[in-house]
């Protein structure tokens, strides 16, 4: 009964928030030119909806390869349409200073909030998250784009902009009040072109309370990510990249935090109008709050093939040499393949296969290799309605020494996630998603299955 009462209060709050902004912005909207129908949605990666932007001429750079994290939570999934497809009036229709007011209200049911093999506990979870972004230049298309920095091609948009975005949130549980959290999500992003040199900055700090398969429990996490990127156009076909990354992950409680510094450099060459080739290398240092430090190097080759305007394929592949203090060196293969296809108007298909290494958050563990594949289909219906179906599989193979708690551990995670979205007004849309996950682990107590159903309201002014 308590859960039903809380759900009723949240629904009333949604309606109140919807009516109040409507009363405020309706006179302004009445003075503006009517907005056109929403166009085809941009491509999505499994974690967030990037905005496809062409590269700069004469040699367009390789665009983003969307990252695939070790695990996606339903709170990270944005159904369709995404916030970037809503109009925000004239706040930033020019290249000067602009601002965006946005927000999200979410109600979800999870059948196994602690992802336990036995004794699953369910709950209703509610989140409210207002936000404001301010910046200079044409930054709207980047505001709701991809903001993960790991395992991606650097993209350069050929425009000068910078913005800062802050979104606090409060999440409360109907029956597990000790899990309630107040979280933060702050982000800065910018790009500047000086003749042949393009500089980029991306930085993000956010906290969250999510169920983490690597840990085998729900845990509070704090993420800090920074990327400093640069590209120099040596000629119409040749360019160089020098990029630096920092990634920090802090856990609450008795977990192992990790902090990674990485340098990644590339030489790119436009072989033909449809094929771009890159050769590069990377070196990284990983410091952990407990256990030995780690270093690794990578030798990589990447290629992007644009067969047509509707079909694009990209591949990054190479070797990774991993060193852990007081342990022998390991050599692993890493890769990521992405295929995007728009077979018809309003339809989009995305396929991804990958193999990457990730530091483990468990005491006594080192790192694991995540190998997986995911496929996503999205369809626009009647201009304002969208349908999406995503499914995937991932194997996590732990590379821990003999005697560690995760020695020989291997997890197989499968998921399926349908979703629908529709516009309620020009500034408000609604999203409905469902998800089923099943993890089969060789480690005792790490297997689980869970079902998640969520409704989300997105606001953008």
Q: Keyphrases for this structure?
A:
20 strands, single chain, 461 residues, mainly beta, globular, 2 helices
Describe the structure.
It is built from 2 helices and 20 strands. 7% of the residues lie in helices and 54% in strands. It has an 18-stranded antiparallel beta barrel. The longest helix has 30 residues, at 2-31. Residues 1-7, 9-94 and 145-153 have low confidence and may be disordered. It has one domain: Porin. It is mainly β and 461 residues long.
Structurally, the number of domains stands at: 1
CATH topology: Porin
Helical run tally: 2
Largest sheet: 18 strands, antiparallel, barrel
Rg from C-alpha positions? 22 Å
In terms of DSSP E residues, the strand content is over 45%
Number of strands: 20
Structural class estimated from helices and strands = mainly beta
Helix content: under 10%
CATH class: Mainly Beta
**What is the oligomeric state here?**
single chain
Judging from the principal axes of the Cα atoms, what is the shape?
globular
Q: What is the CATH architecture annotation?
A: Beta Barrel
Mean pLDDT: 80
Distance between the termini: 35 Å
Order of secondary-structure elements = HEEHEEEEEEEEEEEEEEEEEE
Low-pLDDT residue intervals, each spanning 5 or more residues: 1-7, 9-94, 145-153
């Amino acid at each position: 009964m308590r859960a039903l009462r809380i759900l009723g209060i949240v629904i009333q709050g949604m309606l109140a928030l919807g009516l109040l902004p409507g009363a405020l912005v309706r006179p302004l909207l009445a003075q503006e030119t009517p907005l056109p129908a929403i166009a085809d949605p941009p491509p999505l990666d499994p974690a967030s909806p990037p905005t496809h932007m062409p590269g700069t001429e004469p040699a367009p750079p390789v665009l983003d390869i969307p990252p695939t994290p070790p695990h996606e939570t339903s709170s990270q999934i944005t159904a369709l349409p995404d916030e970037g497809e809503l109009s925000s009036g004239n706040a930033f229709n020019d290249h000067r200073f602009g601002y965006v007011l946005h927000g999200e209200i979410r109600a979800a049911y999870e059948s196994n909030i602690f992802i336990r093999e036995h004794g699953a506990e369910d709950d209703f979870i509610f989140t409210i998250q207002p936000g404001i972004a301010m910046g200079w230049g044409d930054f709207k298309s980047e505001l709701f784009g991809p903001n993960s920095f790991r395992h991606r091609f650097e993209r350069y948009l050929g425009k000068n902009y910078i913005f800062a975005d802050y979104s606090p949130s409060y999440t409360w549980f109907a029956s597990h009040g000790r899990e309630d959290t107040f979280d933060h999500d702050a982000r800065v992003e910018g790009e500047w072109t000086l003749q042949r040199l393009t500089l980029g900055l991306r930085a993000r700090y956010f906290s969250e309370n999510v169920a983490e398969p690597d840990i085998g429990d729900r845990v509070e996490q704090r993420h800090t990510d920074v990327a400093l990127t640069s590209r120099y156009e040596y000629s119409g076909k040749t360019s160089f990249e020098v990029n630096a990354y920092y990634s920090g992950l802090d856990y609450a409680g008795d977990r192992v935090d990790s902090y990674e510094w990485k340098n990644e450099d590339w030489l790119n060459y436009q072989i033909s109008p449809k094929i771009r080739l890159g050769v590069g290398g990377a070196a990284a240092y990983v410091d952990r709050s407990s256990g030995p430090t780690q270093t690794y190097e990578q030798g990589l080759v990447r290629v992007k093939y644009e067969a047509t305007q509707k079909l694009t394929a990209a591949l990054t592949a190479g070797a990774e040499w991993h060193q852990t203090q007081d342990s022998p060196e390991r050599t692993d293969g890493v890769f990521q393949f992405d295929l995007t296809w728009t077979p018809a108007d309003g339809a989009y298909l995305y396929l991804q296969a990958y193999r990457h290494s990730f530091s483990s958050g468990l005491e006594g563990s080192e790192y694991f290799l995540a190998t997986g594949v995911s496929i996503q289909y999205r369809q626009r219906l009647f201009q304002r309605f969208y349908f999406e179906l995503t499914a995937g599989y991932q194997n996590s193979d732990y590379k821990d020494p003999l005697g560690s708690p995760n020695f020989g551990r291997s997890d197989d995670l499968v998921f399926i996630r349908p979703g629908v979205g529709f516009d309620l007004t020009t500034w408000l849309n609604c999203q409905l998603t469902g998800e089923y996950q099943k993890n089969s682990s060789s480690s005792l107590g790490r297997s689980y299955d869970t079902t998640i159903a969520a409704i989300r309201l997105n606001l953008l002014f």
